[in-house]
From TrEMBL:
Protein keywords: Nucleotidyltransferase, Transferase
SUPFAM superfamilies linked: P-loop containing nucleoside triphosphate hydrolases (SSF52540)
Keyword Transferase annotated: yes
GO molecular function: DNA-directed DNA polymerase activity
Matches recorded under Pfam families: DNA_pol3_delta2
EC code(s) of this entry: 2.7.7.7
Annotated GO biological process: DNA-templated DNA replication
Enzyme type, top EC level: transferase
Protein name listed in UniProt: DNA polymerase III subunit delta
Length: 382
């Protein structure tokens, strides 16, 4: 087993990073781009492990077995910092802390490595804080930024980074990974990989959670009964509820555990009013949790709309007579019937409406329900 084993379907990327880890073409800043689910952060993590691998022979670095590889993959290595935000954006203060940490010499490894998994979540003024550190890096420091596309990062940043472009792996490769790494039944792994449209993280969740599979199927079937404004409004409410319930199910328990841990660390009394100093820290935690919940719901709703988009993607494939495999194979007969009642132009317009709703939800402050209701009315069957 090596650190590269989980990068399914990314042969050119693995070759590029292996070569750099062996000293050929290594530079101080890298930009990993690719669609959600392509494994940007996994590639950066594997690269970080290979760079600091304990193996003396360069050809063997990235072994996946030494202490350095294991701790980096487990995100506990002292010289490798992983940055991801569960809030809407990475703050200027967080960026300044990164710049300060990047100036430290590595303690045990060859390199001090900063992996920013959400580089697209930085405002322009925040990104500018990193600019000088990336322009003039300290010795033995490497920056790794991850974003969906180069356009999501300021040109002044991306022009100073070496690009690493990932693609969505074939569904067969994702299914093989689920079988090998997670012990999933091959048939279930194949269905999950196809339903997730090769998004590795979502495929794993679908393979392991029957309720998630049921929620997805409910979402995909919505267009089959969408007739009239009333049905559209009801569909919008249900879609937002599905996304909100899914996000809250993972947040509630975590929020409670974080509050208990904070109170315990502060030595808070078991009953009665908290002292002012403790109240301020609890309030800060609750505000952070609210920001995290907002992003969780936004991300969950975006995934829900992506599932809905797969219905119209399949309809368009049928209308065009394309031989590409359907995402929702189990609904083939219903998809074919639906496709016969509209035209490819209509289907494309409906797909465009869904994508516009996704953009509005993820990039503006519009109320999610209003955006989804507007989208749903444009999907009504004539």
């Amino acid at each position: 087993m090596t650190v590269w084993d989980d990068l399914q379907g990314q042969g050119p990327v693995v070759a590029q990073l292996k070569q750099a880890a062996q000293g050929e073409g290594l530079t101080h800043a890298w930009l990993f781009t690719g669609p959600p689910g392509s494994g940007r952060s996994n590639a950066a993590k594997a690269f970080a492990a290979a760079l600091n691998c304990d193996q003396d022979e360069v050809a063997l670095r990235g072994c996946g077995e030494c202490a350095a590889c294991r701790t980096i993959l487990g995100e506990t290595h002292s010289d490798v910092t992983f940055v991801r935000t569960e809030k809407v954006t990475i703050t200027i203060q967080e960026a300044r802390e990164l710049v300060s940490k990047a100036g430290d010499r590595p303690a045990t490894g060859r390199w001090r490595i900063i992996v920013v998994e959400d580089a697209d979540r930085m405002a322009e003024r925040t990104t500018n804080v990193l600019l000088k550190a990336i322009e003039e890096p300290t010795p033995r420091t490497i920056w790794m930024l991850c974003a969906p596309s180069p356009a999501d990062v300021l040109v002044t940043i991306r022009s100073r980074c070496r690009p690493v472009s990932l693609r969505l792996p074939p569904a067969a490769d994702v299914a093989a990974l689920l079988v090998r790494r997670d012990g999933v039944d091959p048939q279930l792994a194949d269905r999950a990989a196809r339903a997730a449209q090769s998004h590795i993280g979502i495929a794993r969740r679908l393979a392991r959670d029957p309720e998630a599979r049921e929620r997805r199927l409910e979402t995909v079937r919505f267009p089959l009964t969408l007739r009239g404004v009333t049905a559209a409004v009801m569909m919008a409410e249900k879609l937002v509820k599905i996304a909100t319930d899914e996000a809250n199910s993972s947040n509630d328990e975590r929020d409670a555990a974080e509050k208990i841990a904070l109170l315990a660390s502060l030595g808070a009394p078991e009953s009665g009013t908290l002292p002012p100093s403790m109240r301020s820290q609890v309030k800060q935690l609750e505000e952070d949790q609210k920001r995290r919940a907002k992003r969780s719901i936004t991300d969950s709703l975006d995934r829900t709309l992506t599932d809905l988009l797969s219905f119209y993607r399949d309809v368009l494939i049928i209308q065009l007579g394309n031989s590409v495999e359907l995402v929702n194979v189990e609904l083939r007969s219903e998809l074919e019937e639906y496709a016969g009642r509209s035209t490819p132009e209509t289907t494309l317009a409906r797909m465009d409406a869904i994508n516009k709703a996704r953009v509005r939800i993820t990039t503006t402050n519009v109320a999610p329900l209003l955006a989804v209701e507007s989208m749903a009315t444009s999907l009504i069957q004539q």
